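Q: Could you write out the predicted structure for this multi-component system? I'm mainly interested in how the pieces pack against one another.
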Amino acid sequence: MTMFSSRNWREYAHRYRLEASRFAKSGQTYYPKRLVDPDTGDNGQETVNLPMEGTIVTFTVIRVAPNQWSDIAPYALAIAELTDGTRIMAQVTDCDVDDVKIGMEVRLEFRRIQSEGHSGVISYGHKFVPKWY
Amino acid sequence: MRTVYVIGIGMTKWGEVWRSSLRDMHTEAARNAINNAGVDHIDSMYVGCMSGGLFIGQEHLASLLTDYLGMRGLPATRVESACASGGMAFRSAFIEVASGISDIVMASGVEKMTDCTGDEATQALATAADQEYEVFHGATFPGLYAMMATAHMARYGTTREMLSAVSVKNHRNGAKNPFAQYPFTVTSEQVANSVMIADPLRILDCSPITDGAAAVLLASEEVAKNLGKPIIKIIGMGVGTDTIALAQRDDLTTIKSTTLATQKALAMANKSIRDIQFAEVHDCFSIAEIMVAESIGKFAPGAAGPAILAGETALEGTFPMNPSGGLKSKGHPVGATGVAQVVEVYKQLTGQAENGRQIPGSPKIGMTQNMGGSGGSSVVHIMEVVS
């Protein structure tokens, strides 16, 4: 789906700098940033950057992919728990899809995520790579 | 609050229906429901539809569909909660009758999914997931349920055979449903050898893309009792929500919104899950039926897979699930699915299920569970037959 540049621009803080909300009352961190703490309903918060390392808690290998990823399919997609306990979803790259496992240690790297057709915006963000790579 | 009854049902034959438009399918199902109820008017209408806008470029459906139903001027609105749109439309109709505002209200559901390319349909469906933090990274719906399946298999030892057993059982039921999109049986081997979509889910673990409509009429006690036929009383209703982004869930192996919705519906009905004799559930993927069977509290976490494999949820089992064939065999025109679940519960409770699909022993209490996205919303209804 084509996204207008303003919609991409709004997400830069999350996609590029992994900015998250740490809420004062609950101490919980939520990514992406949000206005209200889901645990307490309070809005007192500070902006933090997510840690760059974590462990895969579940994954899949997408074999039938949407158009914009058909050139890289099959690709692995995973949810990892980062070292601060926050969970995020991203693709796993720089390894064979068959090597992806629950418990695998990964780190986040800045990568090209997708492009929107011939004249559309190229979107960047983070992917997981094996920690030992 | 007034007691509310289901007094009539209707649906179309589901499938890849090239000859019928969204408005024609809806009109057919709605007229079938009105004729089935035997009433001469309705007071208002709620249409469940996930995305007329993305699938066929048509919004503003409620007015369009009342017009084509020959009911210009009727109060009508559309209800949307992704794949739970139909169940939520039913809930809205229930509330309108229960409140005393109206006496006869239609809840309908419709989706036209094959007028666009497969890729467009996939993208439309993916709008039920988090666009910025799931779909942006390449998530598809099979992919999200596949991640839940991976977690469930790792935690509880759920196997390929258990996943396959869901599809085999639902196709066995659906093969007897004249309205089903895929009325044929499949074997465990066929499921296990079908093409991989998102590991570990294969094509025969996935519900299809479908055109179809369904409609039911809800009415007050006075209207229902004057019809002089078995009537179905809605005794429980519940809705639950959760994060639509999978990564933000505490537990990936259960569907919290379904648990919340079920607990509310059971409390309202003053029943326990042991009182429910069968259920129509949201098997958009094989793993979904396993997780739902556990999330409603019928089976302990990790116990549903072995139970389904052992036949406990078959038509003749202790707790039949998806006697209609479920989303897997009957089809999944997303907005219509929740309404069609009510159609099947109505048929089972009134002994009208076709072709030997009737659950033995004349069940008295049945349940529907309809959910949106990867479990971001769930709606549960409990119904009881009264003579």
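A: Regarding packing and overall arrangement: Chain B has a mean pLDDT of 97.
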